[in-house]
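[Meeting: bench + compute handoff]

Bench side (C.D.) handed over the final construct sequence. Compute side (W.E.) agreed to return the predicted structure before the next meeting so the bench team could plan truncations. Sequence as handed over:
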Amino acid sequence: MARPRNNPGDLAELPTELRTDRPKGDQIREILENLTRSLAVGTVLPSERVLAERFGVARMTVRQEVDRVVAEGLAARRPGGGTFVAEPRPSRMLASSFTQDMINRGITPGAKVLEHRVGAADEDLARELEEPIGTPVLHLNRLRTANGSPMAIERTALSLHRYPGLDDIDFTEKSLYTELSTRYGVQLGMVSASIVAAPPSPGDAELLEIDSTTPCLIITSAPRTATDQVIEFGRSIYRSDRYDITVAYRAT
């Protein structure tokens, strides 16, 4: 029987004391990890104060381990609502469509178009797209969701010289890569990307419904077609507390 989602995890399930032959922080983290795996999604975990008092440790020690469990995606924080068991976070292959990847995992993908405009490529963007300066470009920014929950803000630019008419498509419900494949015969080839961890801007944090201190993954990429043409140049931000990026490579 599922536990009430708004009740903290039962203290009866926790050890009454910590062992003396192992670091206290490691033990607390294992206890928290086990709790998140045994309780229903949405169940509130015991507070930092309660855990610190139960195990006789500093509250900062507990907070550090809670931070690690949140970073692992096993728990999440809700402003004013404590820490709770998180939904399992999806993992995405870097060289794949967000839409198809979510569908493959039984998750409903969604998108809210934040910006859809045509502009001229400046020197830097023209270099990234390998097009002449002044080439008309579609700037497409979307808030991506999984089962209605904000997951990422994808920002990309595509050459309208290479993909004429792309700016006429409403990408609220359509997959960018499905349209590129069906309309323009695009076949994904090599993907190179830079991935760094960084906090979101205040605006991005509000859109992603996270605290401005929550680590995020900033991904800059310029995927190519099977014939080595640049498809797009993107710089996107993903919630690292809800999302994993998987990179596959061949060792040589």
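W.E. noted at the follow-up: The longest strand covers residues 109-120. C.D. will use this when planning the next construct.
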